[in-house]
Every structure is written in C-alpha cells, then in structure tokens.
C-alpha cells in the first residue's frame, strides 16, 4: 500500500476528476489517499479518502505554501499528484528530502486568459511570459505528466520529451450517469445550457439561437432549461441584460447541482448546448460536459472547436457550429423537429459512443498502472 497525496489550489477537495475518479480508483486499489485543497473548508474522511481543505485561495503565496507543506510533511507521501504549478513547487521541496515522485496533472491552459485579463498592454505580455516560465519550472520539477487532452501537451511534453507521460481524458464513471433518452414531440422542445452564464461561455449565443427558433416556429412550445450561475459582477450584468432582451416565456433557471446529481438536473432536456466563443484558449480546451451529455443519451450542439475535432467525431450524435450563426444553429434544431427518427438515432449514438469509447472504465486501468509505476519503490 502506497501513500498518495493530491495537492490542488483551484479545485475543491470533492472535485469530480480528483475525488470521484482518480482518488477513488487509487483507494479501491488499496492505496492510502489524501487530498489537500485550498478552495474550501473541510477536514475529515469521505468514502475512505482523507481530505484536508482550507479556504485560503485568496491568501498570499507564502500562506498557501505553508498549508501544502504542512499537509505533505504530515502525510509523508510516496507520490504527490499536483494540479497546478504552486502545488508542484510545494511538493518539490519534499521531493528533495524524501525522493518522492511528483505527477503533474495538467487539465487547464496555463497561463489562462483570465490570468492575463487584469493587465493592460504591454504588461499583459510580461505577465504571460512570467506565468509561462512558472509553468516550465513546474514541468522541470515534476517527474511524470498527466495531460487531460492532447492539446494540453504544449509546452511541457515538448520541453521535457523524455519524462513519463499519459493522456487521461475527462471520461465519466457510469455510476454518476442518469440516462434519459427521449423521443421528440412535434410541438415541444427543451433546450438546455449548463455552466457559467457569461458572454465568453456563450449564454448570449444560446439565447440568440433559441430566439431565432421561436420566430421561425411561432407555435412551438419552446422550453429553456438553464443550470448554473454567474461568477463575476460583469457576468451577472450581462446575463440580466440577456434575460431582459429576450424575455423567454418558459424558462427554468436552477443553481449548480452536486456532481453526483448533475446528470439528473438536465434529464428533461432534449438537446444540450455549449456555444462558447471561438478563441485560442477555447480551441485548445476539450469541454468536459460533452462526455456527460453523450453518456446521458443527449444530442448536442457545440461550438466547432479544434480540441473537439481532434479528440472525437460528434457528427453521429450532434452538430459542431459557428456560435455566432444562430440561423445555422436553428436549422440543426429544426432537423430534429422535422425528422424525429434522426433525433432518436443521435440519442442512441451518443450513449453508444460513451459506452464504447468515452467512459471511465476504459481509462481507469491505465491510470492506476501509471500511478503505481510512479510510486516510490
């Protein structure tokens, strides 16, 4: 039995990837597993996994490192799995003392646009370079890499080509999937959007397409299902403006659900949407919920992102679109309304694609083996 410690700054202790998939898989293999997070308060045991979480994300770097240092020294891990550069740096000091391996699990684009956003030109370029160098330093300290997708391999896989690495996508465990494949009614349709209600994430694009649909089909009983919320004041203002602009009659807005019940919240949806803006970062980020929608048997309409095209073929259960083209998006929705058999075919294809290719069971074994090989002998 090995001691395996997860360190994360930006993810909760009960994060879907860390807690519900990776940590549980390692615990089930007999390892002792602990998670240390800096985003919320919780110290205790859940499902046989230890958690030591503190709400210090807004504190100084020194205070964050102090929390990590305490967790690392108290647990004395054989291997540390880190989600961010700061976590890698904290584990690096322990690595020198105990020769424990450090696995860097890269799931976010670093530096992200939101990290650079507060800085004006030319300071944004300076900070982008600074964060880039921090990422390279984290790669230097790490002994192993896990990439959430192929598009996340840059730059670390290219600067450190001889370090052991694997790609571990965001495939869901079927234990957390609620299936509800539907058949379309000719006069009713429910369109669903989940996640952050912001301009960049595409809530405006979603509303524009729904508005175009109701104008083309005035007799259609159009239902709008929204699950999520805003994060910033600017997002809240934008979302309020969009609601006022479109004034949908039949709209349901729910707060984010727990991970374990997430797929139940959109069970009544007919089609699930993600119309985030096209930009460099989004083009290189594979949307995680795509796999959950497929697992639930939901046809999808998604922004035509390079990351999606590189990883999977969506044409069998949905459409990739220009998010700023509501006319074409509406045309795809009408295809389902006018051809219910196509809708049923896509719903079944979605579930079949998940069962055959995009489920956690297909990658669980390689992940466990990779970590076993990384454990200090």
UniProtKB/TrEMBL annotation:
Single GO MF descriptor: glycosyltransferase activity
Residue ranges that the Swiss-Prot or TrEMBL entry lists as coiled coil: none
The keyword Glycosyltransferase is annotated on this UniProt entry: yes
UniProt entry keywords in alphabetical sequence: Glycosyltransferase, Transferase
Annotated Pfam families: Glyco_trans_1_4
Stored SUPFAM superfamilies: UDP-Glycosyltransferase/glycogen phosphorylase
Name under which the protein is recorded: Glycosyl transferase
Lineage, uppermost ranks: Bacteria, Pseudomonadati, Bacteroidota, Flavobacteriia, Flavobacteriales
């Amino acid at each position: 039995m090995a001691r395996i410690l997860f360190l994360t700054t930006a993810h909760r202790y009960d994060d879907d990837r860390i807690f519900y998939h990776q940590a549980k898989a390692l615990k089930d293999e007999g390892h002792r597993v602990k998670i240390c997070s800096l985003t919320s308060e919780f110290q205790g045991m859940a499902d046989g996994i230890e958690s030591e979480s503190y709400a210090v994300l807004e504190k100084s770097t020194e205070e964050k490192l102090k929390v990590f240092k305490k967790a690392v020294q108290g647990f004395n891990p054989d291997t540390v799995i880190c989600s961010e550069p700061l976590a890698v740096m904290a584990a690096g000091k322990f690595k020198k003392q105990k020769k424990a391996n450090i696995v860097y699990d890269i799931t976010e684009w670093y530096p992200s646009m939101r990290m650079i956003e507060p800085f004006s030109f030319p300071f944004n370029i300076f900070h982008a370079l600074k964060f880039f160098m921090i990422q390279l330093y984290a790669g230097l300290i790490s002994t192993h890499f896990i990439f959430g997708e192929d598009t996340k391999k840059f730059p670390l896989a290219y600067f450190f080509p001889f370090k052991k690495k694997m790609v571990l996508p965001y495939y869901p465990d079927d234990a957390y999937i609620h299936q509800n494949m539907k058949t379309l009614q000719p006069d009713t349709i429910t369109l669903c959007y989940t996640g952050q209600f912001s301009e960049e994430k595409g809530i405006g694009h979603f509303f524009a397409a729904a508005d175009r649909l109701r104008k083309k089909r005035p007799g259609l009983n159009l239902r709008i299902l929204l699950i999520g919320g805003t994060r910033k004041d600017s997002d809240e203002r934008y979302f309020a403006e969009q609601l006022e602009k479109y004034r949908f009659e039949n709209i349901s807005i729910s707060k984010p659900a727990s991970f374990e019940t997430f797929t139940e919240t959109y069970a009544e949806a007919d089609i699930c949407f993600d119309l985030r803006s096209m930009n460099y970062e989004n083009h290189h980020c594979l949307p995680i919920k795509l796999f959950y929608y497929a697992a639930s048997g939901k046809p999808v309409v998604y922004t035509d992102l390079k990351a999606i095209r590189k990883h999977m073929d969506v044409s069998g259960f949905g459409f990739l679109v220009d998010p700023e083209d509501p006319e074409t998006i509406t045309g795809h929705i009408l295809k389902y309304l006018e051809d219910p058999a196509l809708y049923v075919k896509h719903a079944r294809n979605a579930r079949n694609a998940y069962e055959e290719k995009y489920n956690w069971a297909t990658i669980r074994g390689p992940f466990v083996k990779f970590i076993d090989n990384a454990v200090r002998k």
